[in-house]
Each structure stands twice: as C-alpha cells, then as structure tokens.
Amino acid sequence: MEPSPDTGSADPAGYYRPDPRYRQEAWLKDYSAAYESFLADREAFWEGVAGELDWYARWDAVCKWDYPNARWFVGAKANITVNCLDRHLAGGRADKTALLWRGEGGEERRFTYRELATAVNRFANGLKSLGVQKGDRICIYMPLVPEQIVAMLACARIGAVHSVVFGGFGSAALGTRIRDADATLVITADIGLRRGKVIPLKEIVDEALQSAPGVERTIVLRRADPPMSLSPREVDFGSLMEAGGADCPPEVMDAEDPLFILYTSGTTGAPKGIVHTCGGYMVGTYYTAKTVFDIKDRDLLWCTADPGWITGHSYVVYGPLAAGASVLITETTPDYPDPGAWWKIVQDCGVTIFYTAPTAIRMFMRFGEKWPEQYDLGSLRILGSVGEPLNPEAFEWYYHVIGGGCCPIVDTWWQTETGMIMITTMIGEPMRPGYAGRPIPGVEAAVVDREGRPVPPGKSGFLVITGPWPAMLRTVYRNDERYREYWHTIPDCYTTGDLAVQEEDGYIMVLGRGDDLIIVSGHNIGTAEVESALVAHEAVAEAAAIGKPDPIRGNTVKAFVILIEGQTPDERLTRDLQALVRRMVSPVAVPSEIEYVDALPKTRSGKIVRRVLKARELGIDPGDISTLEV
After folding, report:
1. In a domain, 237, yes or no
2. Lowest mean pLDDT: which of 101-110, 405-414, 570-579, 594-603?
3. Residues whose CB falls within 8 Å of the CB of residue 10, separated by 6 or more in sequence, listed in order
4. Residue 436 has pLDDT above 70, yes or no
5. 1 pLDDT exceeds 80?
6. pLDDT at position 6
7. What is the structure's pLDDT at 140?
8. What total of structural domains would you count in the chain?
9. Which residues of 32-56 are buried (b: 16+ CB within 10 A; e: fewer)?
10. Which of 107, 168, 433, 539 could form an SS bridge with 103, CB 3.0 to 4.6 Å?
11. pLDDT at residue number 43
12. How far apart (Å, rounded) are the C-alpha atoms in residues 300 and 327?
C-alpha cells in the first residue's frame, strides 16, 4: 500500500486519522467490534487465537482462574519453536528471510527460516550433548548477534529454561541473576562491539562466576581474532554447533511449563525473576505481533530492543517469528558513527515496521531533521514506541519527520510482567498524541483509586488490569509471595505500578511510575540496585536514588549519599562512585548527579521515602509526610 502524503495537523479534536486503507487492509479491521466480541465470550476469543497455532494436544479448558493464579490452555501440549520455525517450513516460508543481522561495520548475515531452524537444531543437540535437560536453567549473556537468538530458541527446543541477561550489565548484577536462577550453564561471547569499542563480555562473566559456583560449563562464542584460549570447563560455541545434528525433535511441553525467567529490577530489593510459560506466552505474543504491528509477509520488522529485555523476547524473537515475519537485528547504536546510522539501515534494508523507544526519538529530535532527511525512509509503513510514555512533542516529530505524516504510530504500553502489549492504538484507529490508546481486544484495563474504585474520566489514578490474560507472569521465581503482591496491592486486580488518566473516549495516558522504579532510556533501573552499589564503597554509609525527568533519556538517575564520618566529598570520590555503579549494575544506571547529604527522609520503620527527595528536587509538594521520623 502506498500511504497518502503528509496530512498536516491533527483534527480539531486532537486526533490524527490514518489513511482509511490501513484499516481496510489490517488484520483487525474493527476495534470496537473485536473488543465487544471479546467481552461477550472471553474464552472463545482466546481459543480462536490459539487455534491458529500448532499444538500436539489441545486444551481441556482455555483458562482456569483461581485468583490470583491462572492456568491457560489447561492440558495442552506444544513447543513454541515448532510455531516459530517448523510451521513455516511446512507452510511455504522455508526460503523466506527469518533473520537479517547488520553489524557496526555494515556487514550482513541473513538466515532463511530453513537456515535458522537448522542452526537452532544443531545448537540444541549441542546443549543436549553437554547434559542439558528439560527444566535446567541456562543464563544467556551475549551481544545482539544471531547466535543469541539461536541460543534462546535452542533452549526452548529442548525444554531448558533460559534467563537472558542484558549484555550491558556488570559482573555483580550478572552474578545475582545467575545465582537466583540456579543456572548451571552460561552462554556468552568473548566480546561485544559498541560504538567501535570492544566490550570484554567473557571477562565480566569470569568475574561473575566467582560468586556463582553452581555453574558447571560456559559456552563461548569466539568473535575476536585471534581466538581466545578456553579452559577445560569452557566450550566453543561454533564447535558445539558443528558437532550437533541438523535434526532435533522438539520437547513436548505442557502449556504451563516454564519457558523463561527474565529479571526485572525490583523497587525495594533484589531483581525479580519473572516466570513466563510456554502456551499462554506463545499465544499472547503471536497475537499481538500479528495484529498490533499488522505483520504481512512482505514486511521487515525492526524492533531496536535487545533480547536482554522483555521487548526483545516478545517482539524480536518469539512473537514475530511465530507470525512468520522477517526480523532485522543490529549491533549498531543510533548515533554511531553518526546520527544517521539507523536511518541508513532503514533505507538500505527496506525496513517497513520500526519499533523503538521514546528516548531514542528524543535523541534524534536533538540532532535535528537534517540526519533523517539524508535518507529515503519511504519503505516505512508502521512506527512503534515502547518503554515509557511517548510525549506529544516526540509523537509529532516521529509522525511527521520519520513517518512523513502518513505512518500510523502504535504507542504501546506493557511490562515484563505482562509479557505482551496491553494498551495501544490499533492500526487504522485515530491516534491521540500523548495517549497510548485503549486496551487491546483481549485485555481489560482500568484507572482506579487505592481502593480499586474507578476514578472519573480525566482524573489520575492507578493503572490496573482487571482480569487474566494468556501471556501474564505465573510467578516470581522462588518468591511467590512477591507475585501475590501484584494482585493484592489494590483489591481484585493486577497493579501495574503506573499512574494514568483515562478519558471519556477510553484513551489512556500513562503518566509514569508510581513506585521506586526508574526508567532511563527505556531501561528499568531499580533504586535498590543503584543504592547497593553505592554503599559497597568504603566511604559511603547510606544512599538513595531517584529519577529526574530528562528531555532526551526520559529520566536520569540522581543519587543522595551520606558519607562515613571522616570522609570528605570531592570530584574524585564522585567519579569513583559512578564507576562503581557502572561496573556493578550498568552504564545506564550511572548517576548523572551525586549530592552529599547529612540525612535522608525516612519512615519511623527506617524505610527511605524517595518520593520526598524527588518532590524536593522538582520543587513540588511532597504530600503526606506524617509518617516520617522527626
């Protein structure tokens, strides 16, 4: 479809209305009818979606809901890789591009569905030769290269539970996640490449494993020349794959068997291992990838997220591949070697669906229109946003400058815990800048007060989900009580932790986090992890971290530090503390400011009240402070 030219401004009601042909050609042509159909028979709705996929055995019941626990597709048997790979080999997509990789230097690697399936089978057999069995936990800590996706799918093929850790995390954060998951094997690479610099991933793993004695083997993808030497406990990725046969029968998995653990930063303690299962997650990500992005066989989808985050799991790997899409991945960063790097990829590769974070959009806005104007972006037909609220100014720039005023924008809201997109503006529906949209068919959302009562339209409240959905988390690994907190914080619903406003038209504006999680450049940073790194320094007695609004990154981290008596703050100490956070947590988590203070606001029970620090920093009313210690 050739989209119509730039339509200019929004209509008097504040909506952008896409070319009618988008709705006519969309998988979901009538949002209201689809949503009413879902409400009329929720189980029939999801049964219809699940029926589009391949199963070894069908379900006895679509959903068993025993608040706050759900079981989806009860008794069904499947393997997600059959739907991501085998189904397409038999369905005429064997020679279609499944995966296209672009390196920092412009080099490319392309995998058809047949080639990707062969690679997955070979690596899966390699894992089995090392003794990996169904249910074993495998940590994957890799750069964004095809082998990372091969490793994920190979684990799923044999029923191993993968735990992917973002390659930007430091050794302490990596070690915490390895230990909590009880991982017995780590898959990594010798190096990653970022902005022309070499990242020593293997060294970080080695340091992390000093505190993770349960790991028996490390598989290493060797990229450097000459290849690094390996110890007897280490296995070469390429050799393991070459030794594996090209046929690996998929493990028959129960729909409720765990598929993966993915850690999201906690607000008051250690990172939470979110557990997603095979059947419901497969159905939810397939459905949302296909319908929210309106994937067609001619499309090339570029989701810029790393699989170390849930967005990469759901919309780089499992959802798009289940939908039979062609997927682009790249190790490049948006401004290296210049701010036109990503637009060159769009032009060269013919990207049609582009899904990125508001922080990247705001960064491009800072660089100006001259960079995208150098490239032909005419292949784009759908734009997406994820990770944090897309502010109206960024929407306008994205819509006009990148989309030429004609590409629909799907501004999506969802979480690691939800597994799939929950709220957006479906293709063909009017777009309202600043508003993510409405709950997708299949999801029930509301904005309520602390007691669970609906708030009036236009008033802020807590965003909640009022019923189960297939891709929902099943538990927090080894901490089911923490899972229950999601459902008991506000009665009879799942509490997202976000504040929101819902208007009379049903459109929802997400305002941001209502807890102590900081979203920096679309990445969830737990205040507890930053604070733990700071107090690890011998000069620090206590620390607190808050997020400060930033026009480019969404938020930056500011830290408040109390020093041990006798210690004096100076620029060198500040640099040392920033370096410590960088090493132990992540470069994304490094505080841009550190303020040395004599005291921190606390409740009488000793809990630091970060909202008071944030209110003071922003010059706003801190609210009720009656519980603070005098």
Report:
1. no
2. 594-603
3. 16, 433
4. yes
5. no
6. 46
7. 98
8. 1
9. eebbeebeeebeebbbebbeebebe
10. 107
11. 97
12. 6
Neighbours of 272 (CB within 10 A): 24
Residue closest to 176 by CA, chosen among 220, 209, 136, 199: 209
Give SS3 for 496. strand
Strands (E) located in 485-535:
494-502, 508-513, 517-520, 523-526
**418 Cβ contact partners less than 8 Å away, ≥ 6 residues apart:** 465, 469, 471, 472, 473
| pLDDT of res. 311 | 96
* Residue range 300-311: mean pLDDT, rounded: 96
Spatial CA neighbour of 243 closest among 216, 219, 226, 225: 219
Q: Which domain range does residue 543 map to?
A: 522-618
Please check whether residue 75 is in contact with residue 57, taking contact to mean a CB–CB distance below 8 angstroms.
yes
Residue 565 is predicted with a pLDDT of: 83
Tell me the HSE value of 282 on the side-chain side, using a 13 A CA sphere: 32
Taking all residues of the chain, what is their mean pLDDT, rounded to a whole number?
92
- Amino acid, single-letter form, for residue 351: V
C-alpha dist (Å) from residue 457 to 270, 435, 502: 36, 14, 5
Mean pLDDT of 518-535: 83
Distance, CA of 268 to CA of 287 (rounded, Å): 34
| Residue 500 CB neighbour total at 10 angstroms | 26
The answer as to whether 489 is a domain residue is no
Answer yes or no: is pLDDT of 607 > 70: no
Residue 265 belongs to some domain of the structure = no
String of DSSP letters for 149-165: HHHHHHHHHHT-EEEE-
Q: Which amino acid is at 535?
A: V
Pull the structure tokens for residue 86: 């085998």
The 10s digit of each residue's pLDDT in 199-244 is 999 999 999 999 999 999 999 999 999 999 999 999 999 999 999 8
Q: What is the CATH number of the domain that holds 565?
A: 3.30.300.30
The overall longest dimension of the chain from CA atoms, in Å, is 72
Q: Among 333, 344, 396, which Cα is nearest to 365's? A: 396
> Distance between CA 150 and CA 164 in Å, rounded?
12
pLDDT exceeds cutoff 60 at 606: no
Predicted local distance difference test score (pLDDT) of residue 2? 47
